[in-house]
Amino acid sequence: MNRRGRLRDHGLSVGRLPPGPLNAITDVPDVHVGHLTLLEGDAVRTGVTAILPHGGNVFRERVPAGLAVGNGYGKLAGSTQVQELGELETPLVLTNTLSVAAGLDGVIGWTLEQPGNEAVQSVNAVVGETNDGVLNDIRAQVVRPEHVRAALAAARSGPVAEGAVGAGTGTVCFGWKGGIGTASRVVVTDAGAFTLGALVQSNFGGDLTVCGVPVWADLQPPPAAPDGSVMIVLATDAPLSDRNLTRLARRAFLGVGRTGGVMANGSGDYALAFSTAPGVRRSLDAALHHTAELPNAALSALFQAAVEATEEAILNSLFTAHTITGTGGRTVQALPVDRVLALTRPA
Fold it and tell me: Of 22, 49, 51, 279, which sits most exposed with the smallest number of CB within 10 A?
């Protein structure tokens, strides 16, 4: 699927916690991911990525969620209701900055059409973005609601396409071609083993560090603006409250920092975490919710998992992305993996 190979395909790894079988957000049971990639002519380099918390009716069986804002220079639609109620009632959609409205239109229409939602009159769709205007003719606003629906329809469990696909088609990270990346970790608590997965849309700057090695000192593309953004989605099957999911989301930014990102002034940096555990879902039809959740003391292992999975997902987005030429004839080169390996592997 990823011809250039992921981080671990080259013998590198991040942290000490083990990954899940796919090392992807879809290691979390029932999480689905779908992409729609738009490559048209010489200037359109964009797309949509959809993340479904589960395969049922998300509006009627809501999942607890928490949101953290690293730097708020962005347009994360639907975020205030997530903060207020601590739950998701739709899939999450990622796209480019000027296509958030199309994302909302697509998710809302899709949600209204789901069986059981015939009487619904309010939908809080959650749509995030990064600005892919370096490679994509972003002003053309080519993303349409039907593209969003196509990404939702394509959502599946199993391996996740990475690199220059979906919402990562036109993004740039550390001056190299960025994109979509994912990773996962398995943690063991007194209550059992749980999985945490991360998916990122990488489009930010800084000094690239790979597995603790400052490769930027020897390997840096032409100077690029540090501004940009990153969208981070964390999923876990651990039964957590929205309060502890918010705490979990905050830790994702430590993973960004470990790759060399600094959350610059013009960078929109957001992390949203949700739990898929059936026992903490919030049924729209229930008069009372009876939940059992992990205690605060069990969170440290999940915090570490969030940091490690986010860091590796960002690196996977770089390792798997290929060189793209886009609007204005601009070309953004793929990360030269062979040169990175020469710097990071022991002699």
Answer: 279
